[in-house]
Amino acid sequence: MRVLIAILVIILILPQTEFDNLLVRKFNETGFFANYAEAKSVLKWLTWGMIFLFLTVNYFIR
Predict the structure, then answer these.
(1) What are phi and psi for residue 21, nearest 5 degrees?
(2) 21 SS3 class
(3) Model-level pTM?
(4) Which parts pass through the membrane (predicted)?
(5) How far is 39 from 27, CA to CA, in rounded Å?
């Protein structure tokens, strides 16, 4: 479980750079979001949610 969540966190964080965010562009191209800002906000919440889930799982599985 921890390994799966860790891999998902890495997959979410790795393509997010200061200058180009590939995931936001991919999220925006899906058509699920009204605009770029909404896709960026959802990705931000998803990333922080996965990090929090990873830390919580690590805390309780020790």
Answers:
(1) -120, 95
(2) strand
(3) 0.82
(4) 43-61
(5) 6
